Amino acid sequence: MSIGAWSWGDEATWHWSPEELPHVKEGWQVFRKAGINWIDNAQAYGSGESERICKQLFQGLNRDEFVIQTKWYVVPDNTTNLFHPSRAPAKMLKESLERMGLDYVDIYLVHGHIHPGSIAQTAKGLAECVDSGMTKTVGVANYSEKDMIEMADELKKYGIPLATNQCEFSILRRHPKSMGRLTGKYNSHNEPPKTYRFSSYPMKDIEPTLAVLDEIAKKRSKSIAAVALNYNISKGVVPVVGMRSAAQARQNAQAFGWRLTREEIKQIDEVSFEGKSTVLWQQG
């Protein structure tokens, strides 16, 4: 399980407040005690603030006590991204490392296939990041299957494997984020904020899904979130979970130590959604 850090420091989408930081720190300790120490970050999260928050979480820890991945913000917002696509990943990774106070990350991803340069140029840039020691491994996020294979082939020319393709998969999008809709926090009378931009099904449409999850959760004495996460794990998926408090961390950690039965998975499959892909972002 990976801890999603998108909300940390992000005011535009997640309405982050600095007063939340102590709660995130407490949740981080809950996760660590449960053996979960892998954080998923990105240069775009909070415009770098999420990476700065990670620096505080890592204080006092040995480097082998946590795993951190971040993502290259590929939108052509500066001249390096636009005119020097092969150099951009390394340049921006250096800035990420400075924000986190680290010498290297464990995994460095391309945030999406919206970069102005070609896949071959991007692969060259990722290879430079590995060769320089700034990251151990590289991967992609939100890539289509076709483009993922092309990236893997290009990286192979440098003797570097593609470590991962991070894409959206959940009960609400089997098509490979439900944005809190599978936690039990929301219902048709309490819709998620409109700024939660992805998988924005009206809550009334997924009430049958939540009813099945709630039934299984009560029978298992687990949280609804834990049941939803266990579904992903049972499908062979490594989930990325949001966390803004110790309570959320404890709920998510309940996903471990047990497995849904085949009958329970079939129950959930029957009320799940295939979902869709988009050309701009959720390609995979």
UniProtKB/TrEMBL annotation:
<dbReference type="InterPro" id="IPR020471">
    <property type="entry name" value="AKR"/>
</dbReference>
<feature type="domain" description="NADP-dependent oxidoreductase">
    <location>
        <begin position="1"/>
        <end position="177"/>
    </location>
</feature>
<feature type="domain" description="NADP-dependent oxidoreductase">
    <location>
        <begin position="179"/>
        <end position="271"/>
    </location>
</feature>
<dbReference type="Pfam" id="PF00248">
    <property type="entry name" value="Aldo_ket_red"/>
</dbReference>
<dbReference type="InterPro" id="IPR023210">
    <property type="entry name" value="NADP_OxRdtase_dom"/>
</dbReference>
<keyword id="KW-0560">Oxidoreductase</keyword>
<dbReference type="GO" id="GO:0016491">
    <property type="term" value="F:oxidoreductase activity"/>
</dbReference>
<protein>
    <recommendedName>
        <fullName>NADP-dependent oxidoreductase domain-containing protein</fullName>
    </recommendedName>
</protein>
<dbReference type="InterPro" id="IPR036812">
    <property type="entry name" value="NAD(P)_OxRdtase_dom_sf"/>
</dbReference>
